[in-house]
Design goal:
The protein is built from eleven helices and 15 strands. The two termini are 25 Å apart. The protein has a seven-stranded mixed β-sheet, sandwiched between helices. A three-stranded antiparallel β-sheet has the order 7-6-13, with no helix packed on it. Helix content is 37%, strand content 15%. It is of the alpha/beta class. The protein folds into two domains: 10-246, Aspartate Aminotransferase, domain 2, CATH 3.40.640; 248-367, Aspartate Aminotransferase, domain 1 (Alpha-Beta Complex), CATH 3.90.1150. The longest helix is centred in the first third of the chain and has 22 residues, at 10-31. 46% of the residues are buried. Pyridoxal-5'-phosphate binds at residues 61-63, 87-88, 90-91, 133, 159, 161-162, 183, 185, 195, 197.
């Protein structure tokens, strides 16, 4: 089915950048610059300066970035790491892959990020780290979080996969904790043509450790100092990212503008609960990786929108801790469970046209019986 408003539109973004991108890809291929070449270094410099951190390391994907961050600070068997259930499974998987124990807490109903009032009660003598997830392009409350982390001497690794460019009190997310992790999966704010990720840090020690972890522990070609992984960012992907990152600030502005249109259009429709508005709180600068609303009769709305040519996404109809096979069933997280029943993501990407957003708004209102 061809949608009038598709949920993502990769070919359109490529068309807009085709000349630059084709040229870069051809250059990389003609020179055979495939693994850990200068495009990766250049991207790491661009990213670290964008974030205002000392170091950035390009890695294979956002999940490996979290795993490497955890390993670099020595998280392992017997350790507990606090995060949320209302996230992409990768956050929790990374903890499990380090043989540590995930401790899941609830999120807030208004912005879907970690409920910092639940943080202290989850801390035990085994707790070593906290992974806040800046979900849908919105920062967690980093002031409350960093205060608790300091008091209990816990490391903070920010899962920033959905929020590159978001800020809290004027400071870039990913720069608060010992490390920030990013994903360049195609649908992310900054996406490559496959898998990619990065880790940002101000710690030289973590930086050097992650350089080893991503490349089989090879300090030099003849000196292997620990067991590592095939965890590098492809040079070809880095070349693509070097082009795309120049457009990032303007893409973020565009996402915020589209969020404002959704916001104004749906404000008088009480059947849907909107995410925080782009200008509602000066402490937050949201980048709207996703525009996620909570909707009455969510599943029926999803079907109706689909029938009208609007492609939406119900990301997690089953709360993560209710997924069979993940062994997380002991957690009771009422808000996360409620969100699993109510949230729906509307189309959101810079190439989306105003008229398409207006059409989505009109169609939602029609579903709830309002005259357009
Ligand atoms: C996308 C994502 C990841 C994982 O990134 P990959 O590059 O797909 O491994 C981790 N956490 C969150 C919150 C994500 O959205």
């Amino acid at each position: 089915m061809k949608y009038r408003v598709p949920f993502v539109n990769y070919p359109l973004q490529y068309q807009n950048l085709k000349t630059e991108i084709d040229k870069a890809i051809r250059r990389v291929l003609e020179r055979g610059d495939l693994i850990l070449r200068k495009d990766v270094e250049e991207f790491e410099e661009r990213l670290s300066s964008f974030l205002g951190v000392k170091y950035a390391v390009g890695v294979s994907n956002g999940t490996d970035a979290i795993i490497f961050a955890l390993k670099a600070i020595g998280i392992g068997r017997g350790d507990e790491v606090i995060t949320v259930s209302h996230t992409f499974v990768a956050t929790v998987a990374a903890i499990v892959h380090c043989q540590a124990k995930p401790v899941l807490i609830d999120v807030k109903e208004d912005d879907y990020t970690m409920d910092m009032d639940r943080l202290e009660e989850a801390i035990t003598s085994k707790t070593k780290a906290i992974i806040p997830v800046h979900l849908n392009g919105r920062s967690c409350d980093m002031q409350k979080l960093m205060r608790v982390a300091k008091r209990y001497n816990l490391a903070v690794i920010e899962d920033s996969a959905q929020a590159l460019g978001a800020k809290f009190k004027g400071k870039m997310i990913g720069s608060f904790g010992v490390a920030g992790t990013f994903s360049f999966y195609p649908a992310k704010i900054l996406g490559c043509f496959g898998d990619g990720g990065a880790l940002a840090t101000n710690s030289k020690k973590i930086y050097q450790e992650v350089l080893l972890l991503r490349d089989h522990g090879q300090k030099t070609k003849i000196n292997i100092v620990r067991y590592g992984f095939t965890g590098r960012l492809d040079n070809l992907q880095a070349a693509v990212l070097n082009i795309k990152i120049k457009h990032l600030p303007q893409w973020i502005k565009r996402r915020r503008k589209l969020a404002m249109i959704y916001d104004e259009g749906l404000r008088d429709c009480p059947e849907v609960k909107l995410p925080p508005s782009p200008c509602s709180d000066n402490s937050y600068y949201d980048v709207y990786q996703n525009y996620v609303i909570r909707a009455e009769r969510r599943d029926a709305l999803f079907k109706y929108l689909k029938s009208k040519g609007v492609e939406c996404l119900i990301k997690d109809p089953i709360a993560l801790h209710h997924q069979k096979g993940l062994n997380l069933y002991k957690f009771r997280l009422p808000v996360s469970e409620k969100l699993a029943r109510e949230v729906i993501s509307l189309p959101m990407y810079p190439e989306l046209k105003e008229t398409q957003v207006e059409y989505v708004i009109k169609t939602i209102k029609k579903f709830y019986g309002y005259r357009a």
